[in-house]
Amino acid sequence: MTLGLASPPRQRVADEKGYVVGYKNLDELKRNLKPILLRRTRDSVLGDLPPRSDEVVRINPTEEQLEFHKANMRIVSQIVRKPYISEMNLLRLRQALLMCRMSANSG
Q1: What is the reported pTM?
Q2: In a domain, 54, yes or no
Q3: How far apart are CA 86 and CA 92, in angstroms?
Q4: How far apart are CA 98 and CA 75, in angstroms?
Q5: Distances (CA, A) of 64 to 68, 73, 89
Q6: Domain span including residue 27
Q7: What is the tally of structural domains in the chain?
Q8: What is the pLDDT along the chain (107 residues), one digit of tens a residue?
Q9: Residue 50: inside a domain
Q10: Please, are residues 65 and 103 in contact by the beta-carbon 8 Å criterion?
């Protein structure tokens, strides 16, 4: 028994560089995990669940969120009006749209 060195997983198949290229012995892994791993499917528990209920609650943005959103939408507007979008503008567009989403989810 060696101390401090973990043995590589028996299920992983790696190439000479160490990249995972596949898996093997998955039936053995499943058999070993069966006593300790509880796997339930949606169909098996669907009868135990209460009926689904959805409620949409609209919350007005704060002034700070609104200003943040407007500033990022100005950036989006400027970029999409251009006849050609460069890689840098595409990155700025993605970031501005992400910031708009973040302002909608903060509070």
Answers
A1: 0.48
A2: no
A3: 10
A4: 12
A5: 6, 14, 25
A6: 12-44
A7: 2
A8: 445 555 566 888 888 898 888 988 889 888 888 889 888 888 888 888 888 899 988 889 889 999 999 999 999 999 999 999 999 999 999 999 999 998 887 65
A9: no
A10: yes
